[in-house]
């Protein structure tokens, strides 16, 4: 039982990342009909937003401390972060420590701007082109963005720690009446799951209960009719592209303490996220979320030692095996619209 609970938690953790990225992918495909292979790069850029803010907050200046000397008796040079000078040592240290959560606020305008520039500068020219052309150009864009990150930040992973208050582990065993230290799970992974649930719920609430979201959903169902009503649906779809980029960026920001940001992390998640979208159903937002968590849990259970000993390597292919089975039985995916990918 403890192994089942632990693997379920691991699956929800992985599924949160899959669901967030797949949600943004589905928003773009459902509104613009674009297969965006650069979406994984947006996830990566979000993670490096956290790295960037950490470096900005850690920027320091050199002062001479007359009360301290080196081994030669000379006054020591001391590096003092600017935030310490501006807000005081204690507050400044807290700001630096909480740089990852603060990066949420930093990343939203950055990712919105990147998404809008990407859509207006490149993607809009490929709306009526075949999906193969869209895949090639967005995949090329992803490689360019990846190399830019590599140039400025280097090829090695950059540790981006969570706040000290959230670096410990929670004892689930005690909560469930088990012995202590039977089920231990990191606080930050629980925070990531809660954050993912909040973002997913916010996106669905925005689309379901706001006038803007209702118009977007109507445009996804029948773009021409909405346009005939005098509504500039293209402008709203452009904004949705920016929002999808922001969702991917937020997923990357909060994932930075779990997996140290590196220049190829976007590609690592890209293929898996597209599998999630296809399994859930192209253009189906609930399907993307459902498939994300489902495949995350399946991958987690397939990683158990007992399963690997029984079927070596199954943890590496389980997602693709499930995708094949689902698409053979139901080509449009679990919750895809009738006629999509069924011709």
TrEMBL record:
<comment type="similarity">
    <text>Belongs to the binding-protein-dependent transport system permease family. LivHM subfamily.</text>
</comment>
<feature type="transmembrane region" description="Helical">
    <location>
        <begin position="270"/>
        <end position="295"/>
    </location>
</feature>
<keyword id="KW-0813">Transport</keyword>
<keyword id="KW-1133">Transmembrane helix</keyword>
<keyword id="KW-0472">Membrane</keyword>
<keyword id="KW-1003">Cell membrane</keyword>
<feature type="transmembrane region" description="Helical">
    <location>
        <begin position="190"/>
        <end position="216"/>
    </location>
</feature>
<feature type="transmembrane region" description="Helical">
    <location>
        <begin position="16"/>
        <end position="35"/>
    </location>
</feature>
<feature type="transmembrane region" description="Helical">
    <location>
        <begin position="42"/>
        <end position="64"/>
    </location>
</feature>
<feature type="transmembrane region" description="Helical">
    <location>
        <begin position="237"/>
        <end position="258"/>
    </location>
</feature>
<dbReference type="InterPro" id="IPR001851">
    <property type="entry name" value="ABC_transp_permease"/>
</dbReference>
<feature type="transmembrane region" description="Helical">
    <location>
        <begin position="102"/>
        <end position="123"/>
    </location>
</feature>
<dbReference type="GO" id="GO:0005886">
    <property type="term" value="C:plasma membrane"/>
</dbReference>
<feature type="transmembrane region" description="Helical">
    <location>
        <begin position="307"/>
        <end position="329"/>
    </location>
</feature>
<dbReference type="GO" id="GO:0022857">
    <property type="term" value="F:transmembrane transporter activity"/>
</dbReference>
<dbReference type="GO" id="GO:0006865">
    <property type="term" value="P:amino acid transport"/>
</dbReference>
<keyword id="KW-0029">Amino-acid transport</keyword>
<keyword id="KW-0812">Transmembrane</keyword>
<protein>
    <submittedName>
        <fullName>ABC transporter permease</fullName>
    </submittedName>
</protein>
<dbReference type="InterPro" id="IPR052157">
    <property type="entry name" value="BCAA_transport_permease"/>
</dbReference>
<dbReference type="Pfam" id="PF02653">
    <property type="entry name" value="BPD_transp_2"/>
</dbReference>
């Amino acid at each position: 039982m403890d192994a089942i609970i632990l693997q379920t938690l691991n699956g929800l953790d992985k599924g949160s990342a899959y669901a967030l990225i797949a949600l943004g992918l589905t928003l773009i495909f459902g509104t613009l009909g674009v297969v965006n292979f650069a979406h994984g790069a947006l996830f990566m850029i979000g993670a490096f937003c956290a790295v960037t803010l950490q470096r900005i907050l850690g920027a320091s200046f050199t002062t001479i401390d007359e009360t301290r000397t080196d081994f030669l008796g000379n006054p020591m040079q001391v590096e003092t972060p600017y935030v310490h000078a501006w807000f005081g040592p204690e507050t400044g240290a807290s700001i630096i420590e909480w740089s990852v959560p603060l990066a949420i606020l930093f990343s939203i305008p950055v990712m919105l701007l990147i998404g809008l520039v990407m859509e207006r500068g490149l993607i809009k020219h490929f709306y009526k082109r075949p999906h193969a052309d869209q895949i090639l150009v967005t995949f090329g864009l992803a490689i360019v963005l990846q190399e830019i990150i590599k140039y400025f930040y280097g090829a090695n992973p950059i540790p981006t720690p969570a706040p000290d208050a959230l670096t410990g582990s929670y004892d689930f065993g005690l909560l469930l009446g088990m012995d202590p230290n039977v089920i231990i799970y990191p606080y930050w992974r629980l925070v990531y799951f809660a954050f993912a649930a909040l973002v997913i719920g916010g996106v669905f609430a925005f689309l379901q209960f706001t006038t803007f979201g209702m118009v977007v959903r109507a445009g996804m169902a029948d773009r021409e009719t909405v346009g005939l009503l005098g509504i500039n649906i293209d402008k709203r779809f452009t904004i949705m592209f920016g929002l999808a980029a922001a969702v991917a960026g937020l997923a990357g920001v909060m994932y930075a303490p779990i997996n140290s940001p590196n220049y190829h992390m976007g590609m690592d998640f890209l293929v898996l996220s597209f599998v999630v979208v296809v399994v859930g159903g192209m253009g189906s937002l609930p399907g993307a979320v459902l498939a994300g968590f489902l495949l995350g849990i399946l991958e987690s259970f397939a990683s158990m030692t007992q399963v690997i000993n029984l079927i070596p390597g199954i943890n590496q292919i389980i997602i693709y095996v499930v995708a094949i089975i689902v698409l053979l039985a139901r080509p449009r995916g679990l919750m895809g619209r009738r006629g999509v990918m069924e011709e």
